[in-house]
Structures are given as C-alpha cells and as structure tokens.
Design a protein that fits this description.
CATH superfamily of the largest domain: Glycogen Phosphorylase B
Shape: globular
Largest sheet: 7 strands, parallel
Distance between the termini: 35 Å
Radius of gyration: 30 Å
Helix content: 10-25%
Number of domains: 2
Length: about 400
C-alpha cells in the first residue's frame, strides 16, 4: 500500500477542501477479523447516523483479516489503509480485538468480539503454575497492557462478573472498565419476535426441534476434535422430529477456505444440513429482510372531548356541529387555530361554551383528561437478526 492510494478525505491535511459536510468528531472502527467486524457493526450502527460524527473503518493486523476489507467495501464503508490510520489522529477508536492498538492515536474503546469475555487463552508465554486456570482472553494483562500502560481508555464489559475476573488478572485496567451490557444479548432479545420466521427459513416445522452444533475454531473445537459428530447426528436423529444445523466459527472458513469446508460437509449438506457457507451478519448481502408491517394510524377527531364521564359538568351541552347561539367551532374540525376563536369563528367573538375540546393541556378539566396508558415509544436501537434467505443457500451449494 503506497501513499498515493491513501484517502484524501474525510481526514488528512487537505480534507477540508474536499468534504461536503463538516463534522465535529471522527470515529475510527478497527476491524481485525470477520467476527470482530460483525460486533463493531452492531455498535457503530448506533452512532453513525449522527450528523455530527464521521465514521471510517480500517483493517487491523490479524491472522484472519484477509476477507475483512472486501466485506466492508461490499457494505459501502469507507476503509482507510492501516498505514494511514496509524498516522492520523481521531477523536475515538473502537475495536473488538487487540492487534496493533498501541499504534493508534486516539482514545480507545475496546469491547469483546463475542458474547462477553469467556474464552480461555490458548497459550501463555510464561506458562502457568500447576493447578492454575488459564487466563480469560481479552481480560488478561498480555493484551490490555503495553509497557505497563493500559491501552484502553474505556474497556466495555458485559456484566459485573467480568469485573471480578479483571480484578484478578489485570488490576491496573479496573479504572478503565465500564459495564455496558452485551450487544449479542441485545440482538437476541430484539429478535425474539421473529422466531417463527427464522424457523421457517431453516425449514423447521412446528413439531420439529432444531439441534444446533456450534464449534469454535482450532483443534479444540467440535469441528476439529469430532469430525464425525455432524454425520452421526444427521444419521441418528429422526428427520421427522429433528432438524440439525451447524454453526461454525468464521475462522474455520477463513483458515481452510470455503470450498474445502463445503467439500468436507458435502455428505451432510446432501443429508439435509442447511447452509453451505457462513451467512453474512448484515442484511445487505445474501439475507432477505422481511418487510416491516406498519400499524395503521387511528384517525382521531380533533374536537372529540376526552373528558371522563364523571368529570363532565351537569349543565354542559353535548358537542355538536354548532355551538350555542349558532356559533361554529364545536363540530368536527373546530379546534382552536387562533387566540380567541375556533376554526370558522371570526376573531374577537366570544368563544363557544360547552365541553372542553382537544385544545391542549390548558383546556382539560381539573380532573385531567383520559390519557393513554401506553408507555412512550422510542426508536429501536438494536435491530433484529435478518432472516436468512434459503434461495441464497441453494445457490451457494
């Protein structure tokens, strides 16, 4: 990667000359692998819609990073070369892995690349004393410290138990630790309403049970230690009652190649194993997103009185097309549009008497109008998991 291929905007010396919208902050998202990239996209999606923020991506050093750049480009993300990213200054850098973070010039937010920090470290440089448990990956001093200094400005944790692990493994990083929750759990909870659509996409009938064989990468995973597990499960479990699926770590596909993994699973795919390649995590490629059903808006008359029956004055006349003395303003469409009168009522005339209309809080009776018991609706921050597209799976085979 030469300097001539570096991005001229939105960062750099002459960036102000080329940008169309000025921003206040620039955030760098560092993707090391497909797994960490997918986790970053869950979080970056919460801030990249802010018009004050510019988000750019870069690919950090990692053994399994060779597909990340192309994946980000298919998502239309702005990807900076790593050599350029380490020479620029950013207002924030977000990462879900640890390779090369000491070279960045930005406050650093580090988060887990999976469902919390739960994976033990495979190898420890100095070894472990007899009977000692291996350290937890991502909460160990080997990855959090550099020359005795904590790299992360903020270390995002999923729950309080991880604070105890961090206190035992790397006490200097406790000041940077913040318990923020688990975006993986948030995504699962947001997806509960689409359970039937997921089962339909996987060809799981109502009277069938879905059996998922999940494997991490490396020789310790089920895919490496028990290569006969999937064929045995497909052969022994009755197809009428069970549906078997495999969930392999993306590093399995990256290390061996998609063609080779599909060749190893050829008999399983012929026996009914769904899939054939790892499905992308975003709805842009290879996934069909169901249409969102919009709730029909209930039409409410502007002038319908919301006074409780018990609060209605005894001498109040019912609202009709015209108010007392033939004054308009209490029929449909007669809400106040100007001080001193209703729609169709000349300015300066006396307002009509009768039950209060829906003019605002000041027009409600002392007892208070009937309010909706529904809680305030807020925009959903975490989108559900997109529904897989079976047609894309058939083409992948």
């Amino acid at each position: 990667m030469t300097i001539s291929t570096w991005a001229k905007a939105p960062i750099g010396i002459d960036a102000e000359r080329w940008i169309s919208r000025p921003v206040r902050r620039t955030v760098l998202a560092v993707a090391h692998s497909m797994v960490s990239c997918q986790r970053l996209l869950d979080v970056i999606g919460l801030i990249e819609g802010d018009t004050r923020i510019q988000v750019v991506f870069t690919v950090g050093p990692d053994v399994f990073n060779h597909r990340v750049a192309g994946y980000l480009e298919r998502l239309d993300a702005l990807v900076l070369p790593w050599q350029q990213a380490v020479r620029e200054r950013f207002d924030l850098a977000v990462a879900a892995a640890h390779g090369g973070l000491r070279h960045l010039r930005a406050p650093l937010l580090v988060m887990a690349h999976g469902a919390g920090h739960a994976k033990p470290v495979r190898s420890v440089p100095d070894g472990l004393p007899p009977g000692a448990d291996p350290p937890v990956y991502g909460l160990d001093a080997q990855r959090l410290l550099h020359d005795g200094r904590v790299l992360a400005t903020a270390l995002a944790l999923a729950h309080d138990h991880e604070l105890d692990v961090l206190r035992r493994q790397c006490p200097p990083a406790l000041d940077a630790a913040v318990v923020v929750g688990d975006p993986c759990l948030d995504r699962l909870v947001a997806s509960l309403s689409r359970r039937r659509a997921y089962r339909h996409a996987l060809d799981v009938d109502d009277d069938q049970r879905l059996v998922v064989v999940s494997s991490t990468w490396g020789r310790d995973g089920l895919f490496g230690r028990h290569p006969d597990l999937l064929p045995t499960a497909l052969a022994d479990l009755p197809a009428r009652r069970f549906r078997v699926a495999a969930l392999l770590h993306p590093a399995v596909w990256d290390a061996h190649g998609h063609r080779q993994v599909r060749a190893w699973l050829r008999d399983c795919l012929a026996a009914g194993l769904p899939g054939g390649r790892p499905a992308p995590a975003r709805p842009d490629r290879g996934l069909a997103q169901p249409r969102r059903r919009r709730r029909p808006r209930r039409r409410r008359p502007w002038v319908r009185s919301r006074v409780r029956r018990g609060d209605r004055p005894a001498d109040a006349a019912p609202a009709g097309p015209a108010g007392p003395a033939g004054q308009p303003g209490h029929g449909r469409g007669g809400h106040a549009s100007a001080p001193g009168g209703c729609r169709g009522q000349p300015p300066g005339s006396a307002p009509a008497t009768g039950p209060p209309t829906r003019h605002g809080a000041a027009d409600r009776p002392p007892g208070g109008g009937r309010r909706s018991s529904r809680p305030a609706r807020h925009p959903r921050l975490t989108e559900p998991v997109p529904v897989p597209c079976p047609a894309a799976w058939q083409a992948a085979r």
